[in-house]
Specification:
It is found in: Endoplasmic reticulum. By secondary structure, the protein is an alpha+beta fold. Helices cover 32% and strands 14% of the residues. Bound molecules: 2-acetamido-2-deoxy-beta-D-glucopyranose (4 copies). One 2-acetamido-2-deoxy-beta-D-glucopyranose binds next to loops.
Length: 374
């Protein structure tokens, strides 16, 4: 659709204008962004993401939030040390508080009766340079949480699907709705942890298919219908991996995708590229969003953002490649890089090492007794 093209052109203008406005106001002049331009970009945003507001006051409020988000995106763009681009997204009319409320789930400390698996093997010379489980048909299409705060269930579902396909060479799409309706440890559409989903699978003796037990998306959960449908995948247990990016990469390359829980603050404005944050721009100790880690790689030679300032000097900065993780989000395919995003690998970006968790899939053997974590 044409608006997309206009949007990016106008946006470039607007962002430049906003940046100039900010610089000017720092110098004590204040021309500000051109109101007409801003309104035009906002109108295109509304068209692209089908947004309408009930009254002029709400429109004015959203327009104001939109302008603030554009300014923030511009700032993130300047601060990021990777190749990430920030700008208009489907979340550009939400305040940070609303975004966190709608999509975040606070993960409480270490209150979990599951021990970390201690990896003993050293990373051998066989370390692959790249790994992308999307290339071998083990990853389901990108999901969309819509009105349901269920990243935790979607990440867990993606983990089980991928491991099932890898182990049994049979691709199944599993029911997120079952994980929500039958959840007794988390809060359904109001948030939960990845392990709540795994406990539900154990307690229900397996997972039905997405086709039989489809995702509702209205934000409501219903009566648990686990007993009604044929199960298509099972897990034996789940483990928390070592908080170390090398062993996570090794596990990913040898066993398959794992779930991670990160600080999602930079994702509200993220468009594409590799995010390389600092502990200040993305606090790695506070995580609130679970996603599926599906691969890793390295960029072709790029001039790091750090090079920007240096490039005013008389010599060119050496170009280096940047290692990254590939992550599958659950905000629909129109967000980010077709529903995916990339984080810098090797600097615990946004707390990626805090909770690497994975199920172990297997055909059913015995009934499991499960209880919620303390
Ligand atoms: C746009 O949003 C309205 C409700 O605000 C909805 O009724 C309509 O179906 C949506 N259209 C599309 C194309 O998503
Ligand atoms: C979602 O659930 C509501 C009831 O809470 C129902 O009215 C609606 O039809 C369901 N939507 C889908 C897509 O199943
Ligand atoms: C994520 O990091 C940002 C920036 O450091 C911080 O403001 C935010 O509170 C963090 N998120 C959570 C859930 O604490
Ligand atoms: C396990 O399922 C039973 C019903 O079959 C339910 O009463 C119980 O709360 C569930 N426990 C967990 C931890 O999900």
């Amino acid at each position: 659709m044409a608006p997309t093209v206009h949007l990016s052109c106008l946006l470039a203008l607007l962002v430049a204008g906003l940046a100039q406005g900010i610089k000017d106001s720092l110098r004590g002049q204040d021309p500000g962004p051109q109101p007409l331009e801003l309104k035009e970009v906002f109108r295109l945003f509304q068209m692209q993401y089908n947004r309408s507001y009930p009254n002029p006051a709400e429109y004015a409020r959203r327009l104001d939030i939109f302008a603030q988000n554009l300014a923030k995106a511009q700032r993130l763009q300047e601060e990021d040390l990777g190749t990430a681009e920030f700008g208009v997204t489907q979340f550009s009319d939400l305040t940070e508080e609303e975004f966190v409320q709608l999509y975040g789930s606070q993960v409480a400390g270490e209150a979990l009766g599951v021990s970390r698996k201690v990896g003993s093997e050293e990373w051998g010379e066989s370390e692959p340079q790249t790994c992308d489980w999307r290339k071998v048909g083990t990853i389901s299409p990108v999901r969309d949480q819509r009105n349901c705060n269920c990243c935790w269930a979607m990440a867990a579902a993606g983990n089980i699907e991928a491991l099932w396909a890898i182990k049994f060479r049979h691709f199944v799409e599993v029911s997120v709705q079952q994980l929500l309706d039958c959840d007794r440890c988390g809060n359904g559409c109001r948030g939960g942890f990845v392990w709540d989903a795994f406990l539900t699978v154990l307690n229900n003796s397996g997972l039905a298919s997405e086709k039989d037990y489809p995702f509702n998306g209205s934000g409501k959960t219903h009566r648990c219908l686990a007993k009604k449908y044929k199960k298509v995948a099972w897990i034996q247990d789940f483990i928390i991996l070592q908080a170390c990016e090398q062993s996570m990469a090794r596990h990913l390359a040898t066993e398959g995708p794992i779930t991670v829980t990160i600080n999602m603050t930079l994702l509200q404005q993220y468009q594409k590229g590799v995010i390389k944050a600092t502990p200040t721009t993305c606090d790695p100790t506070q995580v609130d969003h679970s996603v599926l880690l599906v691969g890793f790689g390295k960029t072709k030679l790029v001039e790091g953002r750090q090079g920007k300032a240096a490039s005013f000097g008389s010599y060119a900065r050496p170009r280096r490649s940047m290692a990254y993780w590939i992550l599958k989000n659950s905000w629909g395919p129109q967000w980010g890089e077709e529903g995916y995003f990339r984080l810098h690998r090797g600097s615990n970006t946004c707390g990626i090492t805090k909770f690497p968790v994975t199920a172990r899939v297997d055909k059913p053997k015995k009934q499991h007794q499960v209880s919620c974590p303390p």
